[in-house]
Amino acid sequence: MRTFPGGFHPHDHKERSKGQAIRCLPVPAQVVLPMVQHIGVPCVPTVKKGDAVCLGQVVGTPDPENPRRFVSARVHASVSGEVVAVEPRPHPFGSPVLSVVLQNDGQDTWVDGLLDETDPGGLDAAAIKDRIQAAGIVGMGGAAFPTHVKLSPPPDKPIDTVILNGAECEPYLTCDYRLMLEQAEEIVEGLQLIARTVDAKHLYIGIEANKRDAADVLRRAAEGTGIAVELCRVKYPQGAEKQLIVALTGRRVPAVGLPLEVGVVVHNVATALAIRQAACSNRPLVDRVLTVAGDGVKRPANLRVRLGTPIRHVLDDARPRDGVRKIVLGGPMMGLAQHRTDVPVIKGTSGVLALRAAPTHTWRACISCGRCVDACPMNLLPNEISIACEARDVDAIAATTILDCFECGGCAYVCPAKRPIVHWVKFGKAELAKRRAEQQARQAAG
Ligand code: SF4
Ligand code: SF4
């Protein structure tokens, strides 16, 4: 079975939602569309209060004044109706973000010309990338990096391999699993379109072995295409880019490097589907499929949800139980805990979890058991990193391999002393960034 060194297997908690076919969540009366739904340059609104908008219309575009605007992704209206506010609103990342608020007229009137079917066979690489960029597509596994940027490697870094990530290793989440079961042919077409944009010859779909039925469906859909559908050992974080690349190709991405350094690009299966829709019908990203689950809901589900839908609306559909102590957007390992339910679903929201049994641990000093070292998929020393951070010793932090940590949470999960290692890692990275900024300011001042 293909796999990577390190990692561990948490209880996957997928049993309650995996049998739930994708259904459409009723569209709310209002949607809130933040100008930040991706990694990169924020968008600026292209509409103002009182404007009428159509479904699929651009309401936010990368700031034209920003020289790095290529690394950004447009925002489109996810309902038709009227702009009722352009103002900062609560956001899943924490601080309020400038958002376009739309009152839904219930008509779903698309922008003229969108959704006209095209044969993508006639599109060359540049045309496919243009459609992906126009559609505002980002990585939908949670990373939310603009897809057209990922598909534009520098000329000296050719890509020969594309991997579709169907691992879905985070507990509770089953939305990718359902997409693979229900829309396998479109996912395969999406992978072929991605391959065309970068001229890649080796194509893989990596799936954890607890989703063998999805792998079988994809194998049938991929027959005769040369795509290898591979099962990987069920282990967290099998779906992390670098770990999936090692498992499927044996190539190791250098520390602090990108997959393109080893000629690989990785995309989530939901992203491939969005690419296929953009290439075939110019459909912008106005909705996504997510899982709502956890012991705090009576009716777990996999839902197609319009972007901008408040998570309260998602939770209401899932019938919340009393005693919910934690709401998480994404999976429980790398997701973002929320302290309010009026934040919207954004492009990277793969799950809404309501947990009653969220533990409130008191943590202790490190007992040097080494479990975090065994679990770390990056071969780091999480114990030493956390001790340096806890001591607030910036020189000691700089001497660790903290920048190789991608905050998967595995070390904190296995730690018997319940040390908040990822919290310390975030703190340590922020301290290093602060020191770097101070050094640059001193150099600039001469
Ligand atoms: S959070 Fe970082 S240090 Fe901890 S296991 Fe994951 S990669 Fe390793
Ligand atoms: S698992 Fe926790 S207690 Fe054990 S070595 Fe790592 S940080 Fe220390």
Task: Give an overview in words.
This protein has about 450 residues and is an alpha/beta fold. It has 2 domains: about 1-360, NADH-ubiquinone oxidoreductase 51kDa subunit (Rossmann fold), CATH 3.40.50.11540; about 370-445. The protein has 13 helices and 17 strands. The protein has helices spanning about 125-135, 145-150, 175-180, 185-200, 210-220, 240-250, 270-280, 310-315, 370-375, 380-390, 395-400, 410-415, 420-445, and strands at about 25, 30-35, 45, 50-55, 60, 75, 80-90, 95-105, 160-165, 200-210, 230, 265-270, 285-295, 300-305, 325-330, 335-340, 350-355. The protein has a 6-stranded mixed β-sheet, with helices on both faces. The protein has a 4-stranded antiparallel β-sheet with strand order 2-8-7-4, with no helix packed on it. It has a 4-stranded parallel β-sheet with strand order 11-10-9-12, sandwiched between helices. Helix 5 links the parallel strand 10 and strand 11. The radius of gyration is 22 Å and the shape is globular. One iron/sulfur cluster (SF4) binds next to helix 9 and helix 10. The site of one iron/sulfur cluster has 15 residues, from helix 12 and helix 13.
